[in-house]
Design a protein that fits this description.
The protein is mainly β. The chain has one domain. Helices cover 9% and strands 50% of the residues. Strands 1, 2, 3, 4, 5, 6, 7, 8, 9, 10, 11, 12, 13 and 14 form a 14-stranded antiparallel sheet that branches. The longest helix has 16 residues. The protein is globular, with a radius of gyration of 17 Å. The two termini are 21 Å apart.
Length: 278
């Protein structure tokens, strides 16, 4: 869910940035604790809307093999995705599947906005970043400092977007009882999930059936701007819900929908396509 295109509507730049941040949260609210024997290709396309008006699109492609995996996302955002992708951007991760767990080896992102280039490369050993290059022309003033500890016990955004642990019972309430530690090369944050309810959902292409709905809380830790309106919006106690659907043929789930309440109108990230092929 990192590839975005947006069009001009009656919402200011700040609100479009907030929408992009919520899309990133949707992309990141998943875990890779137990992939089991899942193998295949996931293709998901999402529409982002506010008060029923479409303001963006996103797309993700991920492939899981018996011994390795990869995921990639590209897009043109024009300032819409403000945490990972601004302008034209690409992101990719590759790694190994070991003992039913996704282990990233390298994550890269390249972003270009208004002739300002940003490059991020992370090399992993287990759940820790051993090498990091984060070059950007954007000033780093007012950022909460990052330390070496913030690079340990984490997952990159694209690995996080892959799959959710399903255990023996794919639709178990326990799926929503966890904290996800995310590091994107510049920012470290947690996403706390709690079980809300069971529901039903249908996409235009690929899925119809039960979903688990989790409540989500965003907790910034380091690397963010203290005065960021996005951080204040996401961390301000707003009601955020994530809908998770089971991936056919495996004991895993993936994001189908994300909603957050707002006085202007609910912001919704909704899957139009959710398909898994061998």
């Amino acid at each position: 869910m990192f590839s975005f295109s947006s069009r001009r509507v009656g919402f200011g730049p700040r609100y479009r940035r907030i929408a992009g941040a919520l899309a990133l949260v949707a992309a990141s609210i998943v875990s890779n604790h137990d992939i089991a024997s899942a193998q295949g290709k996931l293709v998901a396309q999402y529409t982002i809307s506010v008060a029923g008006i479409t303001i963006g699109k996103s797309e993700l492609t991920a492939q899981i093999g018996g011994a390795d995996y990869s995921a990639s996302a590209t897009g043109h955002a024009s300032g819409f995705l403000s945490i990972l992708v601004k302008g034209e951007g690409t992101a990719r991760v590759q790694g190994a599947v070991a003992n039913g767990v996704l282990r990233p080896a390298q994550f890269t992102a390249a972003i270009n906005k208004d002739n300002e280039n940003s490059q991020i490369t992370m090399t992993f050993d287990g759940d820790a970043v051993t090498e990091l290059s984060a070059q950007s022309a954007t000033p780093d003033q007012d950022r909460v400092p990052l330390t070496d500890a913030h690079r340990k016990g984490i997952m990159d955004p694209l690995t996080a977007v892959m799959l959710v642990n399903g255990s023996s019972d794919t639709m178990s309430n326990d799926i929503c009882q966890r904290t996800l530690p995310i590091f994107d090369g510049r920012r470290r944050y947690d996403l706390d999930l709690r079980f809300n309810r069971m529901d039903e959902a249908k996409t235009a292409k690929g899925y119809q059936g039960p979903v688990i709905v989790c409540s989500v809380k965003f907790k910034p830790i380091a690397g963010h701007h203290q005065s960021s309106p996005l951080v204040q919006y996401l961390g301000g106690g707003r009601e955020i819900e994530l809908w998770l659907a089971p991936v056919k043929g495996s004991a895993i789930l993936a994001p189908l929908r994300l909603t957050t309440t707002n006085t202007i109108g609910n912001l919704v990230v909704d899957a139009d396509q959710f398909e898994v092929t061998p």
